[in-house]
C-alpha cells in the first residue's frame, strides 16, 4: 500500500518538531506536520521560554538592594512591562521562525492548520484535505483548565499572563503546583502585590517536604501572601476589579486572578474514538513503553500522553519514537530519575525520590544542611538555602538530591548525572569540593541528620 507520507505529525511543539525533524533529516523519511497555532508549541510560545525570561526580569528587583550593600551607588528604578513585553514578543517571533526553518531545512512539509485522525493511516486537515501516512504521530500537547464555579470566566490562565496589557497592581494566583508558584514569584518580583491560594496543606505537592516548606517560607519572606488550605468560592466583577470570596471567610479585590490548578491533554476532537485509540481518565492518550497506541500505526508523545509533562521528556519520547519506527531499534523511553528545576524564588532543583517516598520504600539516611549563602548574607539577606541527599542504607546509593538555592536548576542538571549513574554517598564524598560555592556542601555532608 502506498501513502502520501511515511509520517504525519499532528502538533508542532517540542515533541512533534523534534520527531519530524529527525525522521526526515536523519532518516530520509517523507514527513508532514500540521500545527494549528504557533510553531514551537507550549514551551516556546506560552511555557518554559517566556516564563524563564519573566523570571529573569523579575529577579532584578532584589539585585538592586544587594548591589547597594556591596557598595554600588545605584537607585531602584521602575519596571516597564511594555518594554519587556515588546522584547519578549520579538524573541518569541525569532524562536518561532527558527522552528519553522528547522522543519523547512529538513524537508518536512508543514500545514498551518488543525488536523484530526480519520482512520489508522489518514489525517484530515481543517480545509478538508486528506493525507495518508504509514505512521501518524500525535504530539498535540496540553492546555490549562479552569474549574467551573460562579465567576470562573473572570480568571485568566498561564496562556494569557504573557499578554497582559499592563502589569496589574494586584494579582491572585490560584494553585500550588510549579506553574502557580513560579508565577507568584515572577509577579511579586515585578512589583505586583501577589497573593497565592492553595487548597492543600503545602505548595508543590509530590516534592520533598522539607524543600517545599523552605520554598514556601522564603516566598512569604519575599512578600507573597501564600494562603494554604484556601480556595476560591466565587468571583464577581466590581468595576475594574475582581472580588474574590474565599473558603477562609475572607473577601478581597484583585486586578487579575490567574488559575493554575491543572492542565488537560489536547486529545478531544482528534477523531481518536472513531479509530479505536484508547484514552485514560484525564483524557490522555494511552501508549505503551514505545509510545505506540493500541492502533499499531498511531503513536503519541509528550503532554498529550500525560506521562512526565516536561519539554526534555517530550523531546526524548520523540527521539525514541524515531529510533523505534525509522531505525528499527525498539527504544523504550526511560522516565526514571529525571532531574528537574522549578523556577520559584528561591529556585528548586530536584532529582530522584523525596525523603518521604524513599522512606516508604526502604531504610534511608538523610543528609541535609540549610544555611545563609555567602552572597546574600554579606548583603544582610536572611534567605536560606537547602542541600539535601537521600541515601539508601542498603547499598549507599543516592536515591534523591534536592537543592533549594539560587542556580539550583543548573546544579541539579550535573548532580542528576551522578544520581542517574547510581553514585553512592561515598562517591559524592570522594569528590573534592569546589570552594567557595554553595554546592560544595553536597560533597561535605558528614553525618546523617536522621535515619528513617
Ligand atoms: C507555563 C508553563 C511553563 C512551563 N515550564 C516548563 C519548564 O520550565 N521546563 C519544562 O521542561 N517544561 C515546562 N513546561 C511544560 C512544557 O511546556 C511541555 O511539557 C511541553 O511543551 C510539551 O511538549 P509537547 O510537544 O507534548 O506539546 P506542546 O509543546 O504543547 O505542543 C503541542 C502543539 O500541538 C498543537 N496542536 C494541538 N492540537 C492540534 C491539532 N489538532 N492540529 C494541529 N496542531 C495541534 C498546539 O497548538 C501546540 O503547538 C511548562 C508548561 C507551561 C504551561
TrEMBL record:
Keywords: Disulfide bond, FAD, Flavoprotein, NAD, NADP, Nucleotide-binding, Oxidoreductase, Redox-active center
GO process terms (BP): cell redox homeostasis; cellular response to oxidative stress; glutathione metabolic process
Note on how the cofactor is bound: Binds 1 FAD per subunit.
Coiled coil: none
Residues bound to NAD(+): 175-182, 262
GO CC annotations on file: cytosol
Gene Ontology MF term list: flavin adenine dinucleotide binding; glutathione-disulfide reductase (NADPH) activity; NADP binding
Keyword Nucleotide-binding attached: yes
Binding positions (FAD): 52, 303
SUPFAM superfamilies registered for this protein in UniProt: FAD/NAD(P)-binding domain (SSF51905), FAD/NAD-linked reductases, dimerisation (C-terminal) domain (SSF55424)
Role noted for this protein: Catalyzes the reduction of glutathione disulfide (GSSG) to reduced glutathione (GSH).
Assembly notes: Homodimer.
Protein name per the record: Glutathione reductase
Organism the protein comes from: Ruegeria profundi
Lineage: Bacteria, Pseudomonadati, Pseudomonadota, Alphaproteobacteria, Rhodobacterales
